[in-house]
Design goal:
Elements lengths: L1 E5 L3 H13 L3 E5 L2 H10 L4 E4 L9 H10 L6 E5 L4 H9 L4 E4 L4 H18 L4 E4 L2 E4 L4 E4 L2 E3 L3 H12 L5 E2 H7 L11 H13 L8 E4 L3 E4 L5
Parallel strand pairs: 1-2, 1-3, 3-4, 4-5
Antiparallel strand pairs: 6-7, 7-8, 8-9, 10-12, 11-12
Length: 227
């Protein structure tokens, strides 16, 4: 998932960003409300972790109210030291999807963020597929890894999309033949091996760690390499 953290406290922001990245998410950070609003309105995120009290002339409530007025329905989790019932009610009435107070347990924050994104995905089809720092935008038909654009041929795009949709799962040769090539029989060629090799040259080779792994006698798996 791609998550925006809008938090001015450097220690809290560093802790949250680090934890979310370790959990396999792509995370952007803004330290003030004005820049946070610009990022949230101009880029696509799967979720936003938002502080209430922010510098920059735009606090958390105003930021969220502006987003909702723009018909932006990205799930938002408030993370704030403002812990009174009235504070929580104001946050939820402004359009917040959940509200956590500081101090907090990161495990709970992660669980709540992931629950919000699952809830959103049940209402509408996904338009972005993400594994580690690899992102595919299905609307613009673009792929980026670590922010760097990757140019793919149509078949390579379809192959990567299939792997992303089954991220963390073993994808067999039969699954690829049916899901990517629309073959319901084995043509007894090395077409899969050739395309996977080409895809690796673009998706894995220029970067420090591979994402496309061969599972011996089974197929392939797209996953973040364990450290």
């Amino acid at each position: 998932m791609r998550i925006l953290v809008v938090e001015d406290d450097k220690d809290v922001a560093s802790f949250v960003v680090k934890g979310l990245r370790e959990a396999g998410h792509v995370v952007e950070h803004s330290g003030n409300g004005r820049d946070g609003l610009f990022m949230a309105a101009s880029e696509n995120f799967d979720a936003i972790v938002l502080d209430r009290m922010l510098p920059g002339g735009v606090d958390g409530l105003r930021l969220l109210e502006t987003l909702r007025a723009q018909n932006n329905h990205t799930p938002v989790l408030f993370l704030s030291a403002m812990a009174q019932v009235d504070d929580r009610v104001k946050g939820l009435k402004a359009g917040g999807d959940d509200y956590m107070t500081k101090p907090f347990a990161f495990a709970e924050l992660l669980a709540r963020v992931e629950a919000l994104t699952r809830r959103g995905k049940s209402d509408q089809p996904a338009t972005r597929l993400v594994t580690a720092d690899l992102e595919m935008d299905l609307l613009s038909r673009t792929v980026r890894r670590a922010g760097q654009k990757i140019d793919l041929q149509p078949r390579e795009f379809r192959l990567l999309e299939f792997l992303l949709r089954h991220s963390g799962q073993v994808v067999t040769r039969t699954m690829l033949l049916e899901g990517v090539w629309d073959y319901h029989f084995d043509p007894q060629t090395n077409v899969i091996d050739v395309h996977v090799s080409r895809l690796r040259q673009k998706v894995d080779k220029p970067f420090p760690s591979p994402l496309i792994h061969t599972v011996r006698n089974a197929g392939y798996m797209l996953r973040q390499e364990e450290v």
